[in-house]
Amino acid sequence: MNITVIGLGHVGLVHAAAMAAIGHDVIGIDSDRARIATLLNGEVPFHEPGLSEEVHRQRRAGRLEFTNDPHVAYSGSEVAFICVGTPALPNGKADLSAVEAAARELERSSAPGGLVVVEKSTVPPGTHELLRRLLRADMCVASNPEFLREGTAMTDTLNPDRIVVGTDEAFADAVMRDVYSTMTDSGTRYVATSVATAELAKHACNSFLATKISFINAIANLCDAVGADVSQVAGVMGSDPRIGPDFLEAGLGYGGFCFPKDVAALSETFYDHGIVEASLLLQQVQRINRGMIGHVIAKLTRYVGLLPGSRVAVLGLAFKPGTDDTRYSPAVSLARTLERRGARVSTWDPKVRNVEELHAKPYPDIYNACRGAKAIILATEWDDIHRMSFARLADVMDGTTIIDARNMLSDSERSRAAAAGLSVIGVGQGEEVPACAWI
Ligand code: UDX
Protein backbone atom coordinates (compact mmCIF):
# COMPACT_ATOMS: atom_id res chain seq x y z
CA MET A 1 0.00 0.00 0.00
CA ASN A 2 1.07 3.63 -0.44
CA ILE A 3 1.67 5.16 2.95
CA THR A 4 2.66 8.68 4.00
CA VAL A 5 4.21 9.37 7.38
CA ILE A 6 3.99 12.98 8.54
CA GLY A 7 6.63 13.95 11.12
CA LEU A 8 9.91 12.03 11.21
CA GLY A 9 10.82 12.12 14.89
CA HIS A 10 11.28 9.23 17.31
CA VAL A 11 7.85 7.80 16.46
CA GLY A 12 7.46 8.82 12.81
CA LEU A 13 10.82 7.72 11.46
CA VAL A 14 10.65 4.37 13.25
CA HIS A 15 7.08 3.85 12.03
CA ALA A 16 8.04 4.78 8.45
CA ALA A 17 10.91 2.26 8.48
CA ALA A 18 8.66 -0.42 10.02
CA MET A 19 5.87 0.11 7.47
CA ALA A 20 8.45 -0.24 4.68
CA ALA A 21 9.87 -3.34 6.37
CA ILE A 22 6.47 -5.05 6.21
CA GLY A 23 6.29 -4.34 2.50
CA HIS A 24 4.54 -0.99 2.05
CA ASP A 25 5.74 1.87 -0.15
CA VAL A 26 6.39 4.67 2.30
CA ILE A 27 7.14 8.34 1.91
CA GLY A 28 8.04 10.43 4.93
CA ILE A 29 7.54 14.18 5.15
CA ASP A 30 8.74 16.63 7.79
CA SER A 31 8.41 20.41 8.03
CA ASP A 32 12.05 20.54 9.20
CA ARG A 33 14.02 20.92 5.95
CA ALA A 34 17.32 20.20 7.67
CA ARG A 35 15.97 16.86 8.92
CA ILE A 36 14.91 15.84 5.41
CA ALA A 37 18.33 16.88 4.08
CA THR A 38 20.02 14.77 6.77
CA LEU A 39 17.87 11.75 5.92
CA LEU A 40 18.41 12.14 2.19
CA ASN A 41 22.10 12.27 2.97
CA GLY A 42 21.84 8.80 4.48
CA GLU A 43 22.07 9.89 8.12
CA VAL A 44 19.59 9.31 10.94
CA PRO A 45 19.26 12.42 13.15
CA PHE A 46 19.09 10.65 16.55
CA HIS A 47 20.36 7.47 18.18
CA GLU A 48 17.96 4.54 18.18
CA PRO A 49 19.32 0.98 18.03
CA GLY A 50 18.66 -0.72 14.67
CA LEU A 51 16.92 2.31 13.13
CA SER A 52 19.73 3.48 10.90
CA GLU A 53 20.23 -0.05 9.54
CA GLU A 54 16.49 -0.47 8.83
CA VAL A 55 16.25 2.94 7.14
CA HIS A 56 19.20 2.11 4.89
CA ARG A 57 17.82 -1.35 4.11
CA GLN A 58 14.42 0.03 3.12
CA ARG A 59 15.94 2.93 1.11
CA ARG A 60 18.07 0.45 -0.82
CA ALA A 61 14.98 -1.71 -1.46
CA GLY A 62 13.24 1.40 -2.85
CA ARG A 63 10.39 1.22 -0.32
CA LEU A 64 11.25 4.35 1.71
CA GLU A 65 11.47 7.93 0.43
CA PHE A 66 11.69 11.33 2.12
CA THR A 67 10.47 14.71 0.92
CA ASN A 68 9.38 18.10 2.17
CA ASP A 69 7.01 18.66 -0.74
CA PRO A 70 3.40 17.95 0.37
CA HIS A 71 2.23 17.29 -3.20
CA VAL A 72 4.86 14.59 -3.64
CA ALA A 73 4.12 13.18 -0.17
CA TYR A 74 0.36 12.88 -0.63
CA SER A 75 -0.05 12.01 -4.31
CA GLY A 76 -1.34 8.45 -4.53
CA SER A 77 -1.31 8.04 -0.75
CA GLU A 78 -3.89 5.62 0.71
CA VAL A 79 -3.02 6.08 4.38
CA ALA A 80 -1.42 9.09 6.08
CA PHE A 81 -0.05 8.61 9.60
CA ILE A 82 0.23 11.84 11.61
CA CYS A 83 3.31 11.42 13.83
CA VAL A 84 4.04 15.05 14.72
CA GLY A 85 4.92 16.18 18.26
CA THR A 86 2.21 16.97 20.79
CA PRO A 87 4.24 18.65 23.56
CA ALA A 88 2.71 19.95 26.78
CA LEU A 89 1.52 23.55 26.90
CA PRO A 90 2.40 25.51 30.08
CA ASN A 91 -1.06 24.58 31.46
CA GLY A 92 -0.37 20.84 30.98
CA LYS A 93 -2.76 20.37 28.06
CA ALA A 94 -1.41 18.83 24.85
CA ASP A 95 -0.36 21.34 22.20
CA LEU A 96 -2.19 20.15 19.10
CA SER A 97 -0.98 22.91 16.77
CA ALA A 98 1.30 20.56 14.78
CA VAL A 99 -1.53 17.99 14.40
CA GLU A 100 -3.80 20.80 13.22
CA ALA A 101 -1.19 22.07 10.74
CA ALA A 102 -0.73 18.53 9.36
CA ALA A 103 -4.49 18.13 8.91
CA ARG A 104 -4.78 21.47 7.10
CA GLU A 105 -1.92 20.51 4.79
CA LEU A 106 -3.56 17.13 4.08
CA GLU A 107 -6.85 18.83 3.31
CA ARG A 108 -5.09 21.21 0.87
CA SER A 109 -2.59 18.90 -0.82
CA SER A 110 -4.04 15.39 -1.00
CA ALA A 111 -5.99 14.10 -3.98
CA PRO A 112 -9.71 13.30 -3.49
CA GLY A 113 -10.65 9.67 -2.88
CA GLY A 114 -10.87 8.04 0.50
CA LEU A 115 -7.52 8.81 2.16
CA VAL A 116 -7.40 7.34 5.69
CA VAL A 117 -5.83 9.84 8.08
CA VAL A 118 -4.42 8.14 11.18
CA GLU A 119 -3.53 9.78 14.47
CA LYS A 120 -0.32 8.13 15.63
CA SER A 121 0.77 11.09 17.75
CA THR A 122 -0.51 10.75 21.31
CA VAL A 123 -3.55 13.01 21.55
CA PRO A 124 -6.30 13.60 24.12
CA PRO A 125 -9.63 11.85 23.55
CA GLY A 126 -11.80 13.94 21.28
CA THR A 127 -9.00 15.05 18.94
CA HIS A 128 -10.62 13.07 16.12
CA GLU A 129 -13.46 15.61 16.21
CA LEU A 130 -10.96 18.37 15.49
CA LEU A 131 -9.55 16.33 12.58
CA ARG A 132 -13.05 15.68 11.25
CA ARG A 133 -13.71 19.42 11.18
CA LEU A 134 -10.42 20.14 9.36
CA LEU A 135 -10.44 17.30 6.82
CA ARG A 136 -12.60 16.91 3.71
CA ALA A 137 -15.72 14.72 3.78
CA ASP A 138 -14.06 12.13 1.48
CA MET A 139 -11.35 11.44 4.07
CA CYS A 140 -11.60 8.96 6.97
CA VAL A 141 -10.15 9.29 10.47
CA ALA A 142 -8.56 6.56 12.58
CA SER A 143 -6.47 6.43 15.74
CA ASN A 144 -3.60 3.96 15.96
CA PRO A 145 -1.60 4.70 19.12
CA GLU A 146 2.06 3.78 19.26
CA PHE A 147 3.41 1.89 22.27
CA LEU A 148 7.10 1.83 21.31
CA ARG A 149 9.78 2.55 23.88
CA GLU A 150 12.85 4.55 22.99
CA GLY A 151 15.92 2.38 22.92
CA THR A 152 13.90 -0.62 21.67
CA ALA A 153 11.67 1.31 19.27
CA MET A 154 12.46 -0.68 16.13
CA THR A 155 11.87 -4.09 17.75
CA ASP A 156 8.77 -2.84 19.59
CA THR A 157 7.26 -1.52 16.36
CA LEU A 158 7.99 -4.65 14.36
CA ASN A 159 6.83 -6.96 17.17
CA PRO A 160 4.05 -5.09 18.98
CA ASP A 161 2.21 -6.61 21.98
CA ARG A 162 -1.00 -5.55 20.28
CA ILE A 163 -2.13 -3.30 17.45
CA VAL A 164 -4.85 -0.91 18.55
CA VAL A 165 -6.91 0.75 15.83
CA GLY A 166 -9.86 2.98 16.57
CA THR A 167 -12.18 4.14 13.84
CA ASP A 168 -15.86 4.78 13.43
CA GLU A 169 -15.81 4.17 9.66
CA ALA A 170 -16.02 0.73 7.97
CA PHE A 171 -13.79 1.78 5.04
CA ALA A 172 -10.99 2.91 7.39
CA ASP A 173 -11.35 -0.29 9.41
CA ALA A 174 -10.85 -2.42 6.28
CA VAL A 175 -7.87 -0.33 5.10
CA MET A 176 -6.16 -0.46 8.51
CA ARG A 177 -6.60 -4.25 8.71
CA ASP A 178 -4.83 -4.40 5.32
CA VAL A 179 -1.99 -2.17 6.55
CA TYR A 180 -1.24 -4.56 9.40
CA SER A 181 -2.16 -7.87 7.70
CA THR A 182 1.46 -9.11 7.65
CA MET A 183 1.66 -8.71 11.42
CA THR A 184 -1.80 -10.05 12.23
CA ASP A 185 -1.24 -13.04 9.90
CA SER A 186 1.74 -13.96 12.04
CA GLY A 187 -0.33 -13.83 15.21
CA THR A 188 -0.21 -10.25 16.54
CA ARG A 189 -3.44 -9.31 18.30
CA TYR A 190 -5.52 -6.63 16.54
CA VAL A 191 -7.77 -4.62 18.84
CA ALA A 192 -10.49 -2.73 16.98
CA THR A 193 -12.15 0.09 18.93
CA SER A 194 -13.91 3.41 18.43
CA VAL A 195 -11.63 6.40 17.77
CA ALA A 196 -12.21 7.90 21.22
CA THR A 197 -11.37 4.57 22.90
CA ALA A 198 -8.06 4.23 21.05
CA GLU A 199 -7.14 7.85 21.84
CA LEU A 200 -7.87 7.38 25.53
CA ALA A 201 -6.20 3.93 25.74
CA LYS A 202 -2.77 5.43 25.00
CA HIS A 203 -3.03 8.12 27.69
CA ALA A 204 -4.41 5.51 30.11
CA CYS A 205 -1.46 3.13 29.48
CA ASN A 206 1.24 5.76 29.92
CA SER A 207 -0.40 7.33 32.96
CA PHE A 208 -0.90 3.95 34.61
CA LEU A 209 2.77 3.02 34.08
CA ALA A 210 3.87 6.41 35.43
CA THR A 211 1.60 5.89 38.44
CA LYS A 212 3.25 2.53 39.06
CA ILE A 213 6.67 4.21 39.04
CA SER A 214 5.58 7.00 41.39
CA PHE A 215 3.95 4.47 43.69
CA ILE A 216 7.14 2.44 44.04
CA ASN A 217 9.12 5.66 44.50
CA ALA A 218 6.78 6.69 47.31
CA ILE A 219 7.35 3.24 48.85
CA ALA A 220 11.12 3.76 48.39
CA ASN A 221 10.95 6.99 50.37
CA LEU A 222 9.06 5.18 53.10
CA CYS A 223 11.66 2.38 53.01
CA ASP A 224 14.33 4.99 53.67
CA ALA A 225 12.33 6.24 56.64
CA VAL A 226 11.48 2.86 58.21
CA GLY A 227 14.57 0.87 57.28
CA ALA A 228 13.00 -1.40 54.67
CA ASP A 229 14.34 -2.42 51.25
CA VAL A 230 12.35 -1.27 48.22
CA SER A 231 13.83 -3.86 45.85
CA GLN A 232 12.49 -6.62 48.08
CA VAL A 233 9.13 -4.88 48.49
CA ALA A 234 8.95 -4.53 44.68
CA GLY A 235 9.88 -8.22 44.32
CA VAL A 236 7.04 -9.23 46.62
CA MET A 237 4.59 -6.93 44.84
CA GLY A 238 5.73 -7.98 41.36
CA SER A 239 5.36 -11.69 42.02
CA ASP A 240 1.62 -11.13 42.39
CA PRO A 241 0.43 -11.69 38.80
CA ARG A 242 -2.26 -9.05 39.30
CA ILE A 243 0.51 -6.46 39.81
CA GLY A 244 3.38 -7.78 37.65
CA PRO A 245 7.08 -7.02 38.05
CA ASP A 246 7.56 -4.31 35.39
CA PHE A 247 7.80 -0.58 36.09
CA LEU A 248 8.49 -1.13 39.77
CA GLU A 249 12.08 0.09 39.70
CA ALA A 250 12.52 2.87 42.21
CA GLY A 251 14.97 5.69 41.61
CA LEU A 252 15.18 9.13 40.10
CA GLY A 253 11.75 8.81 38.51
CA TYR A 254 10.38 8.84 35.00
CA GLY A 255 11.26 11.23 32.19
CA GLY A 256 11.34 11.35 28.42
CA PHE A 257 9.05 12.99 25.95
CA CYS A 258 6.00 10.79 26.65
CA PHE A 259 5.27 10.08 30.30
CA PRO A 260 5.55 13.64 31.68
CA LYS A 261 3.37 15.21 28.99
CA ASP A 262 0.85 12.34 28.83
CA VAL A 263 0.28 12.26 32.59
CA ALA A 264 -0.16 16.05 32.61
CA ALA A 265 -2.54 15.89 29.64
CA LEU A 266 -4.71 13.11 31.14
CA SER A 267 -4.85 14.99 34.42
CA GLU A 268 -6.19 18.01 32.50
CA THR A 269 -8.69 15.87 30.58
CA PHE A 270 -10.01 14.44 33.89
CA TYR A 271 -10.34 17.96 35.23
CA ASP A 272 -12.13 19.23 32.11
CA HIS A 273 -14.69 16.46 32.54
CA GLY A 274 -15.26 17.16 36.24
CA ILE A 275 -13.44 14.02 37.43
CA VAL A 276 -11.40 16.10 39.82
CA GLU A 277 -10.20 13.34 42.19
CA ALA A 278 -8.53 11.52 39.28
CA SER A 279 -6.96 14.77 38.12
CA LEU A 280 -5.54 15.21 41.63
CA LEU A 281 -4.30 11.61 41.64
CA LEU A 282 -2.23 12.30 38.52
CA GLN A 283 -1.04 15.61 39.96
CA GLN A 284 0.34 13.68 42.93
CA VAL A 285 1.99 11.18 40.57
CA GLN A 286 3.81 14.12 38.97
CA ARG A 287 4.66 15.62 42.35
CA ILE A 288 6.16 12.42 43.67
CA ASN A 289 8.15 12.09 40.45
CA ARG A 290 9.60 15.61 40.72
CA GLY A 291 10.26 15.03 44.42
CA MET A 292 12.67 12.16 43.71
CA ILE A 293 15.31 14.66 42.62
CA GLY A 294 15.05 16.42 45.97
CA HIS A 295 15.14 13.06 47.71
CA VAL A 296 18.43 12.13 46.02
CA ILE A 297 19.93 15.56 46.70
CA ALA A 298 18.90 15.25 50.35
CA LYS A 299 20.86 11.99 50.50
CA LEU A 300 23.86 13.73 49.02
CA THR A 301 23.65 16.56 51.54
CA ARG A 302 23.15 14.14 54.39
CA TYR A 303 26.00 11.80 53.53
CA VAL A 304 28.51 14.11 51.89
CA GLY A 305 27.42 17.64 52.79
CA LEU A 306 26.98 19.74 49.69
CA LEU A 307 29.07 22.87 50.02
CA PRO A 308 28.92 25.48 47.27
CA GLY A 309 31.85 24.71 45.02
CA SER A 310 31.91 20.97 45.79
CA ARG A 311 32.44 18.84 42.69
CA VAL A 312 29.74 16.29 42.03
CA ALA A 313 29.82 13.91 39.06
CA VAL A 314 26.51 12.87 37.48
CA LEU A 315 26.87 9.69 35.42
CA GLY A 316 24.21 9.44 32.73
CA LEU A 317 22.16 12.24 31.20
CA ALA A 318 19.76 10.46 28.84
CA PHE A 319 16.31 9.89 30.35
CA LYS A 320 17.03 6.17 30.15
CA PRO A 321 19.74 3.96 28.65
CA GLY A 322 19.81 3.14 24.95
CA THR A 323 18.93 6.64 23.77
CA ASP A 324 20.57 10.07 23.43
CA ASP A 325 17.26 11.71 24.32
CA THR A 326 17.51 14.15 27.25
CA ARG A 327 14.01 15.62 26.98
CA TYR A 328 12.53 15.85 30.49
CA SER A 329 15.40 13.70 31.70
CA PRO A 330 15.50 13.40 35.51
CA ALA A 331 19.30 13.12 35.24
CA VAL A 332 19.49 16.53 33.57
CA SER A 333 17.08 18.07 36.13
CA LEU A 334 19.27 16.64 38.88
CA ALA A 335 22.45 18.11 37.37
CA ARG A 336 20.70 21.47 36.83
CA THR A 337 19.40 21.57 40.42
CA LEU A 338 22.88 20.77 41.77
CA GLU A 339 24.35 23.56 39.62
CA ARG A 340 21.73 26.00 40.92
CA ARG A 341 22.68 25.03 44.47
CA GLY A 342 26.28 25.97 43.77
CA ALA A 343 27.86 22.57 43.11
CA ARG A 344 30.48 22.23 40.37
CA VAL A 345 28.84 19.54 38.30
CA SER A 346 30.67 17.35 35.82
CA THR A 347 28.75 14.83 33.77
CA TRP A 348 29.29 11.79 31.58
CA ASP A 349 27.06 10.05 29.08
CA PRO A 350 28.03 7.60 26.32
CA LYS A 351 25.53 9.02 23.80
CA VAL A 352 24.70 12.59 24.83
CA ARG A 353 27.18 15.09 23.42
CA ASN A 354 25.74 18.35 24.74
CA VAL A 355 22.92 19.59 26.96
CA GLU A 356 22.21 23.26 26.53
CA GLU A 357 20.78 23.76 30.03
CA LEU A 358 24.05 22.63 31.65
CA HIS A 359 27.18 24.75 32.11
CA ALA A 360 29.67 22.18 30.84
CA LYS A 361 29.59 19.56 28.11
CA PRO A 362 29.52 15.93 29.25
CA TYR A 363 32.86 14.14 29.38
CA PRO A 364 33.15 11.20 27.00
CA ASP A 365 35.17 9.37 29.68
CA ILE A 366 33.80 8.34 33.09
CA TYR A 367 37.08 8.79 35.01
CA ASN A 368 37.62 12.33 33.70
CA ALA A 369 34.08 13.22 34.74
CA CYS A 370 34.73 11.85 38.24
CA ARG A 371 38.12 13.51 38.75
CA GLY A 372 38.08 15.51 42.00
CA ALA A 373 34.44 14.60 42.75
CA LYS A 374 33.26 14.57 46.36
CA ALA A 375 30.48 12.25 45.26
CA ILE A 376 29.22 10.46 42.19
CA ILE A 377 25.54 10.06 41.36
CA LEU A 378 24.50 7.22 39.05
CA ALA A 379 21.57 8.77 37.19
CA THR A 380 20.98 6.55 34.10
CA GLU A 381 21.46 2.77 34.00
CA TRP A 382 24.06 2.62 31.20
CA ASP A 383 25.91 -0.70 30.86
CA ASP A 384 29.28 1.11 30.83
CA ILE A 385 28.69 1.89 34.52
CA HIS A 386 28.75 -1.84 35.27
CA ARG A 387 32.12 -2.07 33.54
CA MET A 388 33.85 0.73 35.43
CA SER A 389 36.76 0.04 37.77
CA PHE A 390 35.99 1.08 41.35
CA ALA A 391 39.70 1.18 42.14
CA ARG A 392 40.31 3.72 39.35
CA LEU A 393 37.30 5.73 40.51
CA ALA A 394 38.60 5.80 44.07
CA ASP A 395 41.94 7.04 42.70
CA VAL A 396 40.53 9.97 40.76
CA MET A 397 37.80 11.00 43.24
CA ASP A 398 38.25 13.42 46.11
CA GLY A 399 35.57 11.65 48.17
CA THR A 400 34.24 8.16 48.71
CA THR A 401 30.48 8.28 48.09
CA ILE A 402 28.49 6.85 45.20
CA ILE A 403 24.77 7.63 45.26
CA ASP A 404 23.13 4.92 43.20
CA ALA A 405 20.03 6.89 42.21
CA ARG A 406 18.79 4.04 39.99
CA ASN A 407 19.56 1.12 42.35
CA MET A 408 21.53 -0.35 39.49
CA LEU A 409 24.58 -1.80 41.25
CA SER A 410 24.42 -5.47 42.19
CA ASP A 411 25.51 -6.82 45.58
CA SER A 412 28.82 -7.98 44.11
CA GLU A 413 29.44 -4.56 42.56
CA ARG A 414 28.71 -2.96 45.91
CA SER A 415 31.21 -5.31 47.55
CA ARG A 416 33.83 -4.41 44.93
CA ALA A 417 33.13 -0.71 45.55
CA ALA A 418 33.52 -1.29 49.31
CA ALA A 419 36.82 -3.11 48.72
CA ALA A 420 38.04 -0.02 46.85
CA GLY A 421 37.06 2.13 49.84
CA LEU A 422 33.88 3.55 48.29
CA SER A 423 30.45 3.51 49.93
CA VAL A 424 27.31 3.08 47.86
CA ILE A 425 23.98 4.58 48.92
CA GLY A 426 20.87 3.54 47.02
CA VAL A 427 17.27 4.74 46.95
CA GLY A 428 14.83 3.12 49.36
CA GLN A 429 17.36 0.82 50.89
CA GLY A 430 16.68 1.73 54.44
CA GLU A 431 18.70 4.92 54.81
CA GLU A 432 16.84 7.59 56.73
CA VAL A 433 16.38 10.91 54.93
CA PRO A 434 15.01 14.07 56.54
CA ALA A 435 11.37 14.80 55.66
CA CYS A 436 12.35 18.21 54.22
CA ALA A 437 13.75 16.35 51.21
CA TRP A 438 10.69 17.13 49.10
CA ILE A 439 11.01 20.04 46.69
C1 UDX B 1 7.02 5.17 27.14
C2 UDX B 1 6.08 3.97 27.08
O1 UDX B 1 6.68 2.84 27.75
C3 UDX B 1 5.76 3.62 25.64
O2 UDX B 1 4.82 2.57 25.59
C4 UDX B 1 5.19 4.86 24.96
O3 UDX B 1 4.95 4.60 23.60
C5 UDX B 1 6.14 6.04 25.09
O4 UDX B 1 6.44 6.27 26.47
P1 UDX B 1 9.64 5.57 26.78
O5 UDX B 1 9.35 7.01 27.06
O6 UDX B 1 10.53 5.22 25.63
O7 UDX B 1 8.25 4.79 26.53
O8 UDX B 1 10.30 4.96 28.08
P2 UDX B 1 10.03 3.83 29.17
O9 UDX B 1 10.94 2.68 28.94
O10 UDX B 1 8.61 3.52 29.29
O11 UDX B 1 10.55 4.59 30.48
C6 UDX B 1 10.02 5.87 30.83
C7 UDX B 1 10.73 6.42 32.02
O12 UDX B 1 10.38 5.71 33.20
C8 UDX B 1 12.26 6.39 31.94
O13 UDX B 1 12.75 7.63 32.42
C9 UDX B 1 12.64 5.26 32.87
O14 UDX B 1 13.92 5.43 33.44
C10 UDX B 1 11.55 5.37 33.94
N1 UDX B 1 11.28 4.11 34.65
C11 UDX B 1 10.80 3.02 33.97
C12 UDX B 1 11.47 4.05 36.03
O15 UDX B 1 11.88 5.03 36.66
N2 UDX B 1 11.17 2.88 36.69
C13 UDX B 1 10.70 1.78 36.05
O16 UDX B 1 10.46 0.77 36.71
C14 UDX B 1 10.52 1.84 34.64
Features:
439 residues; alpha/beta; five-stranded parallel β-sheet; 13 strands; globular; disordered C terminus; binds uridine-5'-diphosphate-xylopyranose
Provide the β-strand percentage band.
5-15%
Mean pLDDT: 95
Strand order of the largest sheet: 3-2-1-4-5-6-7-8
Low-confidence stretches: 434-439
Structural class: alpha/beta
Shape: globular
Multimeric status of the protein: single chain
Query: Roughly what percent helix?
Result: 40-55%
The unique ligands bound to this protein are: uridine-5'-diphosphate-xylopyranose
Per DSSP E runs of 2 or more residues, the count of β-strands stands at 13
In short:
With 439 residues, the protein is α/β, with parallel strands linked by helices.
How would you describe the overall organization of this protein?
The chain is of the alpha/beta class and 439 residues long. Helices cover 44% and strands 13% of the residues. It contains 18 helices and 13 strands. It has helices spanning 12-21, 33-40, 51-60, 70-74, 97-109, 127-134, 153-158, 170-179, 181-185, 195-226, 230-238, 259-272, 276-303, 330-340, 366-370, 383-386, 390-396, 411-419; strands spanning 2-6, 25-29, 64-67, 79-82, 116-119, 140-143, 162-167, 189-193, 311-315, 344-348, 375-378, 401-404, 423-425. β9 (311-315), α14 (330-340) and β10 form a beta-alpha-beta unit. α1 (12-21) crosses α3, α10 (195-226) crosses α11 (230-238) and α13 crosses α14. The chain is globular. The chain starts with a strand and ends in a 14-residue tail after the last strand. Mean pLDDT is 95; it is low at 434-439. It binds uridine-5'-diphosphate-xylopyranose (UDX). The site of uridine-5'-diphosphate-xylopyranose has 20 residues, from α10.
